[in-house]
């Protein structure tokens, strides 16, 4: 292409703005039709898939398993640890892209490239060529000799040139790196926080529980609540993966080194802080640290009246976003205001009650849930326009069946009323869509449930809870190939959550991959030896392997740590399967005595009958469980229901649940 043609092509675009989705797709089609890619079918499918997912706003969810299954034709049993096809094709794709841009592209084109450690591509314009010497002189002039961080950034860029990167792009990055390093006055760019960093981790952060510096534990709700608010705020930042609360709060009261936290949570930055309240004055200190190098990236102190606490998490999140830099934003850094919208601030009293509600909700106990409902209702009473309080209240009603009893029609109406009101006040609340999805599940309205889950995940793709709830929806539907995808995403978002790890193990167990299941359940128990669900899952996996004594022991431990009919029912099921009918009948008789008013979970009774191979009675109690709208009736998923699937009555059960 001639210099004149180069200039005309460049002038046709505003190179100061990021390429639009249409411009990226146009470039993608040109690449796929080029000589370099014409016969590279696997790499073409790979490239098309990751580009489209990134343009759809799901770049942070593009993982090795998904690429293998969706783009490269691997089945649901694909295991990236055993099959390196994705990594192999990624290396070939990078090399082929480099060849294309070297031989078939020029100024004014869109560059599609991959930063190391990420399968989500980045997009930028290729500008007109400039003299490299002039660029180098400009950088040297801008660099004060005493600024070691700037020198480190400059030297890193120089290494990239030596490795064969195109000079214009690399020198532009080097210039930006130097200026940013000088302006920030930290090691942000010199320690991994820059485009093209060689870290194996994506842009990721963990918010540690802020420390309560008051002598009284009565202020614990405030420090915990501010941490929760920060996690929620940072999740809105495009391109940034935020570790879920379950994992980050496992370090509460722990003095682990930042680098150790980074290793366990797989993050590149850690936000720590403290809260002190003196009378009506509040002092909050926050500190952002580079997880890999252990350097401080930013420190901020906020001293306000306690009545102004509600604005501080937003300000801290905005400051963190500024420090991490616009390179990690999906829109090139122009959407910070959109990423952190100034929501209508609730009244001080409403916000205090809201934080107290969050504190008790996270205890996930019957008493904690009752207290949370009380405080969220108080928050709404204080400020009827407080959207997040409505969403939190809906969340309480959704999880109530897990810690109390099955939902009544009144509870379903309250879920829908609270979640709908939350969305009327703030349409960006993805969590409210998850609540509406669960409400639709209880009514067997599966199309509505899927619609709400998809809306929720579009708004809150970083919600581990959202992915886990959607995975359960998929399990109920029998869509096994997709269950693993969302459980794996949840485990990535919540890496040291025993719940997320054991949910992944449950998939392996159902698929008959018992050795992998056992390994994963043991991993969950290494995180929390008292986690009943992991003991339950491990017991069932042992039972399916024929290890009866081990199975009984684990299921007993499950009942020790988590009381409930479902756990006791699985123990009764195991006793029956192992031929220990006396113990099984003892559990069954107790269940039947407790069902005097018909409110006892019928699925628990059905499970014991299934273990005894009394299918007629099992079908009768499963009919009652469907009447109770019990979502534990996962007929198409759970292994204990497998012997019923060839019976004509099984189809009738599915029809009653509108699954057939």
Furnish the topology, listing elements before pairings:
Layout: H1 3-11, H2 21-32, H3 41-55, H4 64-71, H5 85-103, E1 110-113, E2 122-125, H6 132-142, H7 148-162, H8 167-184, E3 204-207, E4 211-212, H9 220-234, E5 241-242, H10 245-248, H11 258-265, E6 269-278, E7 281-290, E8 296-305, H12 312-324, H13 336-339, H14 348-361, H15 366-382, H16 387-403, H17 409-425, H18 430-442, H19 446-459, H20 464-477, H21 480-493, H22 498-510, H23 514-527, H24 532-545, H25 548-561, H26 565-577, H27 581-594, H28 602-611, H29 615-627, H30 648-656
Parallel strand pairs: 3-5, 3-6, 4-6
Antiparallel strand pairs: 1-2, 6-7, 7-8
Helix pairs in contact: 2-3, 3-5, 6-8, 7-8, 9-12, 9-14, 14-15, 14-16, 15-16, 16-17, 16-18, 17-18, 18-19, 18-20, 19-20, 20-21, 21-22, 22-23, 22-24, 23-24, 24-25, 24-26, 25-26, 26-27, 26-28, 27-28, 28-29, 29-30
